[in-house]
Structures are given as C-alpha cells and as structure tokens.
Amino acid sequence: MLLRPYAAVIRGRLQWGLEFRLDDSGMIVEVGPHTGMPEPYVLTPAFVNAHSHLEYRTLMGQIPGGDYWTWIRQLTELKKSQTEAEVVASCDLAAAENRATGVHFIAEHSDRPFAGASLSRHGFEGPVFQELITFLEQASPEEKRQIVLDRAATQGAAVSPHAYHTVDESSLRWVLAQGGPLSIHVAETQAENDFTERGEGPLAAFYESFGFSRPPTGKSVAQSLLDLGFAGERVQFVHGCALSDTDISLIAGADVSLAHCPRSNIALGCPTARVRRWLDAGIRVGLGLDSAASSGPIDMFDEMRASLDLSRAIGEPITAEEVWWMATGGGYASIPSLPKVPYDLVPGAKMPLLRLSVEGAHETEDLLGLDPTAVSWIDGGDGA
Ligand SMILES: [Zn+2]
C-alpha cells in the first residue's frame, strides 16, 4: 500500500512531501519523496490515551467541578447507583468515542470488572489496571485483595493501587510483589503531600473521621512511593500536579513515567502540572483523557489544546510538537507493559494510522484546532 498525504506528523513535527510504502502486514517499509500528486490529508500515527476510566462515561456532566475532594466524594456516591448494565454501556460508549477521536492504545483504570471486555470488543490494545482500594478494610485487607484479584482475572487486568492514601501500606507492598505493570494516581492535589509529609490536611481529617490513622513518612507522596519500591519502567504515576522539582528529578532517575490529564486537572482545581520540567528531566510522558466525568467529552484534540494552553498560562510553555508526541509515540513509550517498538512514521514501524481531513496545515499547531470529525482510519481500519 502506498500512502501519499500532503503532510505527515513525524516525531510530533508536521513534514511535507513524503510518501509511505507499507507491506501487506501494515509495516512501513519505505519513506521517500512524493512520486505523484499528494492527497488532501495529513497522516499521523493513531493516538494513545495514557490514562482512562471508561466506566464513568455516563456520569459526564453530573458532578460539578472546582474542587477535587468534593468531586471524588460525589463520584463515589454516584458509582453506587450505577447498575452493571450501566457500567457496561458506559464502557462501550467511551470506547466508541475513543475510537472516533483516533485513539488505539489505552491504559485503562478499572474498578468494576467490565472495561477489559469492552476494550477487546472495540479492538483496542493496552493494559487494564484493576484498581485496589483498601481504605475501609485496612485492618484486614486480605479479603479485598482477593476480590480485586478475581475481578482482574475476569478481564486480564493487572492489580494496581488506586492511590497512596486509599491503599494501606501492607497492600501497597503486596501489589508490588505481584510483579505486574503498575499505574497509580500520585500528587493529583497538594493534600497528598501534606498527608505523607506531616500527617496534616484534608486527608488526615478524612482518616480521622473514620477513626483511622496513618503515620506520616516525612516525605512527599511521590518519594514515599518511590521508597516503597514503586520504581522502574513498569510504573506509571498519574496526574503529578503537585510534584516538586526534587520529586521530578527522582521520578526521572527511577525511570517512572507520568500521565498528564490537563482537562481533568483544570476541572477539579488541581495545581498545574509542570510538564515543561517533566520533559526537560527526560521523563516519559503520555497524555490521558482520564474520565469523562471530570474531563468532559472524549476528544484528544481538546485535550492537546488544554495541555498547550496550561503550559503557556504558567509561563513554562511546551510546544505543539511535544504535545502531539505525548499523544502518540511518547504516550506509547510511557505506558507500562507495551512492547518496546518504534511508534512513529519511520521504516520498520507498524501501528494503526489516521487520516486527518484538513487542508493547508503548515505546522503541528494547526492540527490542534481539529475535532474528531476530521479523523478517519487508514484502510478502513480501526487498527484491527
Ligand atoms: Zn484516574
């Protein structure tokens, strides 16, 4: 197959005048200059959603934003009212919308055991992280671990802790010993650091209201997790809004990746993630659509625009090229457990490809103004 777009996005950068020859398996075997009239589209590797909760899709627009702690309490209540049929429908709807916005790989966080089957039905690839929460079972969490192990087994998922503050320390160590890929929410708010460093703030009060206590570690939440052994390329930290410069350099040194979820962070009033510093430290970073209950409509272009805008708003700009890379090859490299293969429009690479209907694009930033209606899959394909 020969693809002759007028431009293509390579390592996040828009380049003109190249055509791409693919073999029967879909592998790119040759990249060279145009040998004929190009077609009016831009070629790009399919998007990678580095952090997702499909099951909250039908809760979109039902929880007011503004404050993370209010939001998470309301989400926890609304989840109880979701029937199994609604959760399955939510996963299927979110999967279809991910497909429509050009996503092929998803790193999914799953509380209930239905997202994995939905992702398979829709032809997606990527790990499913079965969330372990033991907050209410911290005296004897073994039974809860078994429940979560069983849920994970039903959908080929890896057990992963939801967050430091929702999982007791013995269970954090137990999850580490499972040996699988790990993804955990870290430093979404400053309250997590106040809790681990000094045993203060809203999380300490929350523990107290249940009659629980947990001694502070004297360190940030990221450093507390790194010290427990949450390190290496099998680990992804999600959000990272309240990471210090020290945290960032330790995360880089530990080869832990980060998922950036800008629209969710804005909606929930989280500190602005210092993505410029993450990239400069050499951290593998992916862009995550998170859940529609916080981020809003499933739209990778809107997520990319938010990422660019936020970085500019704090005077630490990243470029549109870096954003596109976070949403494609960089995001792919950030997801634990995916094969280490090139994810870019280069010879020897093989990945699902998108055709973007846009004329006259001059640079990557021109593509950020698109929406899912511009997306179609090469070869009719949804990557399958
Ligand atoms: Zn999340």
Q: Tally the helices: what do you get? A: 16
In the CATH scheme, the class of the largest domain would be Alpha Beta
End-to-end distance:
16 Å
Task: Report the sheet-strand fraction.
Answer: 15-25%
Q: Report the oligomer.
A: single chain
Q: If you compute it from the alpha carbons, what radius of gyration comes out, rounded to the nearest whole angstrom?
A: 21 Å
Bound compounds: zinc ion
Point out poorly predicted stretches.
Answer: 380-384
CATH fold group of the largest domain: TIM Barrel
Count of distinct structural domains: 2
Q: Spatial order of the strands in the main sheet?
A: 3-2-6-15-16
Query: How many beta-strand elements?
Result: 16
Shape: globular
The percentage helix is 25-40%
CATH-level-2 architecture of the largest domain: Alpha-Beta Barrel
Q: What is the CATH superfamily classification of the largest domain?
A: Metal-dependent hydrolases
Mean pLDDT: 96
Quickly give the structural class. alpha/beta
Q: What does the main sheet amount to?
A: 5 strands, mixed
Word description of this protein:
By secondary structure, the protein is α/β, with parallel strands linked by helices. The protein folds into two domains: 2-45 and 348-380, Urease, subunit C, domain 1; 47-334, Metal-dependent hydrolases (TIM Barrel). The protein is built from 16 helices and 16 strands. A five-stranded mixed beta sheet has the order 3-2-6-15-16. Helix 2 packs across helix 3 (115-121) and helix 6 crosses helix 7 (201-209). The longest helix is centred in the first third of the chain and has 17 residues, at 84-100. It is globular. The two termini are 16 Å apart. The model is unreliable at 380-384 (pLDDT under 50). The structure holds zinc ion. The site of zinc ion (ZN) has 6 residues, from loops.
